[in-house]
Structures are given as structure tokens and as C-alpha cells.
## 1
Amino acid sequence: MDSLFVREAGEIENAFLAAPFEEDGWNAALRLFARRTGSSRAQLLGLGDEATLFNFMPDIDAAYQREFMEIEAWRPEVNWRVAASGRPLEILSEAHYDVVRQHSGTDDYEEHIRRWEGVHGCQTVLVEGEGLLVGLASLRSEGDGRTEERDRNLFAAGAAYALAAVRMQQAMARRGAAMTVGAFDAIGVAAFLIDRHGTVAALSAAAEAIVGDPAGGALCLRKGRLGAARRDADALVRAAVGRALNGTSADAAMQQYWIGSPREGGGGLLCELFRLPQREWDFGFDPRVLVVARRAADLPAMRTAPLRSALGLTAAEAEIALRLANGEAREAIAAGRGTSAQTLGTQIKSILRKSDVGREAELAALVNRLLR
């Protein structure tokens, strides 16, 4: 092995291992990898759930990404590179492409790959499993020509370092999730972090206590997914998580719902769902949705401000209105506030009068409209 090869492999190693920790580190690593392997470009591609999760190519025009999605180039019947996918760290190149192109690929993809200088090159699978495939590729134009043995050897050396870097990125995402729920632990808030599959990736201690309540907790976990104990509320929670994961509208970015307890007199929860912003270099490991659950009595005063302003309620009356809308029984509310049933009844009459409604069910509907 010549000294130039060793030096260039060392440069690739340093670039990839620094990528997760440096600003623009992945772009720098992919640029260097392309140069050292004699390629026009290098690509890091993530596929999952029958779609493209990410497609990183430094300095590529935005039209490339749009076109890639328009022709559904993540599908193996469209893209012969995807169809040629081998075992992890198995290096595939033109000889493999020649075989696969006989029965896979479309005219649209052929035109696409020529326009974006990717007819030749190498590729390998870095990560496979957990509903995710991460692939690394070098793309060469017709002018660059087919790869030679030295190019493929450098590609193979770089792929091992790229895998280590992707795993570091994954570990950092998990560490970030743990730190996030740790912050909620410090303030005693029930928080759930949900990944791209809709599975709870991490949860705070207060959240564990909620889903661990077999006697009638409002929320529960089923096969790792967040749901509600009551059937009607379960469908609502699952639909809300789905909207937060898949939606692009402002309505999906922040949602809030009242989830009642299945136990008579049990305390319900206000559940707020936040779609988390995606980082530029998101490998599909980062949490996608944050769910915060609070009992009505635990809501900060600022959260009851719309009720107090719109209905002219006092702070105590706003809390009671919330708890009634949350499905709590009068006895539980009185006990939680340390007041008598008679005092609570007087307060509820005042709330109904100020809200201009005649029944508690109408009040609950009004509260939900104001706070959703």
C-alpha cells in the first residue's frame, strides 16, 4: 500500500470522524471524500418508510432534490442504484450497476443521473435496520469515467469511517433526547419524546408515573406508542401524533387536547403536542414530536389567562373550569383544592353564570374551544 494512499485514507478518516462535531462538518467530509475518490460528488442517502428521509450532497442545486422526489427515485424499480443495494459495507460499483440496469431503472432516472453527473461510481450500505437504510455513494460523470481499483479501495476505507461517524451522530441524538427529558425531570413535568416511527424514544419520570398507573391513568403506552386509556381519546391521541409527524401545516406544529381519565373522578390531562424542528443534518435519529402532559391544577397561571380574559373568571374559577373540562368529578376537585363541596358548588354556579352556559357539559365544550 503506497504512502499516498495511506495519507489520503487518513485525511478521509479525520474528516468523517470530525463531521458530527463541526459546523458544516458533513459537507466538508463529503467534499473531501469525492475528491479523493476521483468523483464529481459524494452522497449520503437515508431511506425509510418507503420514502427518502435525507439526501445529502454538498453544493447541489435545489432542483436536484425536487427532481429526485418527483420521479420517486427512492424506489428500486426506478433507481438502479437502490436496486443494487448490497450487504452492509459491501462495495458495489459499475460492474454491479451493469447487471442491475438490465431489469431496473426508468428513462426518467437515466436522464436524471446523467444531468447530475452520477452515471458511474461506488456505493455501499452503512446502516440497515430499524426501518432505516443509510447509504454512501460516490458519483462520477461520464467524463470522470468508471472507477479504478484504487478508487474503490479508498471508497472502502472511507466507508468504514463514515459508518463510525453516522453511529456517533445517532449516539448524540439519543444523548440529546436523554438530556431533554432530564430537563423536564428537573421541573417535574411529564414529557414524552416521539421518534419518526411514532414510538416513544424517551420519557421523563413524571411521564413514566402517568403511563405506569394501572388504576386509571389517562395516558398509556401500547407497544411503545403513546395512547390513551379511554378508547375515544386513544384515537384522538394517535391521530394527533400522526399529524405532528407528517403534517406541514401550522395546525400540526402545535396541538392541545383534553384527555379524560377512564376512572370515575380520576384526573384528566391537558396534552400538548409540539412538532420539533429538524436540523439541517437530520439522519432520522432525532425525536420528531414532544408531548407535554399536565393536570389542570398544575397548569401555570398564564395558561388560564384566555379563560380569565374571555369569561371574566378569577384565577380559582379558571382552574376549576379547566378541571371540570378535564372530566374531573366535583369530589376530586374539592379534595384537590382543599375546599368543601358546598364552596365548590357556589364557585361553579358563578363560573356558569359568567360563562353564560347552563350546564357543565356546555362549559367543558366552551373551555376546549377557548384553549385549543
## 2
Amino acid sequence: MRRRSLPGSAGRRGAVAGALAGLLVLSTAACSDYGGDLSGANISGGGDGDTLVVSETAGVPSSFLAYGIQRGYFADEGIDLEVSPSSGGASVIPALLSGDIDVAGSNVVSALIAIGRRMPIEMVAAGTSTAERPENDFASLVVPEDSPITTAADLDGARIAVNSLQNINDVVVNSVLTEVGLTNDDVHFVEMPLPDIPAAIQRGDVDAGVLIEPFATIGRSQGLRVLASPYVNTRPGLQIGTYLMTSDKVSDDPELMAAFRAGVETTARSIAEDPDSFRDALPEISDLSPELAGQMNLPQWRGTTDRDSIETIHDVMREIGLTDADLDYDETVAD
């Protein structure tokens, strides 16, 4: 499968320039789904020939793609996939629009904010999703073991550590709070990198924190107590991640998009059918230790975008003021 050059036009260049300018605001307001300095993303140039460059969040999300490469699923589709780890979220969208990368792995909230601001991007495949059952959620809202916070109602006035503000944390914590008559305005979100959150909770710098794997397992091993499973609480099987391409790429090279999506879907089926093989591969394709890889709750991958998840997240985003745009699902998600 050859990677085709896209025809340019003054109109398209103007649209992209305007979108990039808008992202100066977006990348501040809706930053990484896994934390990190947005200026430090390790992003290479777009691919040449058969190479497709994908920038995906460092850690388990990028390991998903690495596993698909290792198993030859993308090569089977005629794609030489190159994975460039990043801090994720909105940080990868400017690189996508400028042509430095071919596909951006981001989160649904960052994508919907960007699309709501009329940036020319579309969801082409699904990234990470969570489990159907709370005990298998790969995100946890945690407190110290001896904390007086024993139910969500006790979070009134609490300081909650999150890795990013105005993002997926706002959406999923809101789902926990609304069940007990609270809102996001009743708590104080404190932004800090994920690796720092467990220690901050133990020191009492914050009262609670939202952790994702592997940090959720690390936090539990250090004595933190799970108060809620926020992703599953928002919706069982909630899709968190997404892969994005520019609208030009989707329309001008639909075969390339379909080939990438097919590789993602095959990788997702493989892990669903044999998760132990993926766990066994993690120490080789990531920095995870065998012990941690064997203990943590894995995200789920389904490959195909889940409409119910997108609509659920967008509805909450509108309720809490992260977007005022309407959702045109058919325009947002590529066929």
C-alpha cells in the first residue's frame, strides 16, 4: 500500500493554519490524557513510501500498536507502521495538521474539543476502552487507606489530583459526583503528573486522585484505597482513546485509512482472544516489569469506534462546559 501525496490548495492551507492557531489554546485547555509536558512530545516527520507514522501516548497505548507490529498485523495490511511515543491528548493534533505525522492517537475529549472548533480531523479507529465491570476498570479514584472519605458524598470540598485539567478526568469524576448530588464545582482539581499522584495522596497534599494503569496498581500496592471506578461508572466499556487522521487524508486516501483501521481491529481481536500473550509481551515492548504487567488491569481494545461512548462523553462535556458544539457523529467519525 503506497502512501499517497495529498494535493494542496490555498484554501486548505488557510484552514490548516487557522486550526493550528486554535490549537495554541486547545493544547493548554485540554492537555494530555496521560500527563506530561506538551512541548516535549517525541514526534518524528510523516512517513514516506509504505511507512505510516503514528504518534500515540507512551505506555500501554503505544504498546498496543507495538504489539500489532510485532505480530505482523499491520504488515499484513501493507503498512510499515512507525510508532512515535508522545504525551498524548491535544499535544499531537498540531503535528497531525502540519503533516509531521500521519495518524494521531489521542483521547476522545481532546478530539471532540478540536472537532467542535472545526479543526479538519476525523476519528478513524478506536483506541483504549475500559472494562465492563468496576473491578476491572483501568482507572481508579483512590484515597488513603485511613481516609475519612468513605463514599463519594464525602468528596465535598476535596482536593482531587488529576494528570490534566479540562479533560477526561472532568467527565468521569463528574459521573461519580452527580450520583451523590455533587458537581465538579464542589471539588478542587489539582494538576500533577501521574507518577507523582500516589505520593502526593500519601503526604496529604491532596485528598484523592485519579490514577490509570500501571499507576493504579502501584497506588494500591502502596496502600491506597479505591473509592470508585470512574471510567466504568461513566459507562461500562467506555471508549477513552481514538485515532485521528486529517479530513484530507481520509477523503484522498480511503484505502490507507481502511488498512490502518484493519490493523487496529486485528490487533484488538488478538488481545481480546489471548490477553496473556499481550501481557507476556509487555516487558519486551515497554518499560513495564513482568510482575506489574501481570497484575494490572489492562485497557480493552475493540478497534471500531463506539457511538454510545462518543455520545455519552459529548453529552457530559456539554453539561460541564467543556464544549458548546453540537455533535455531528457522521462528520466526526470516518466511515
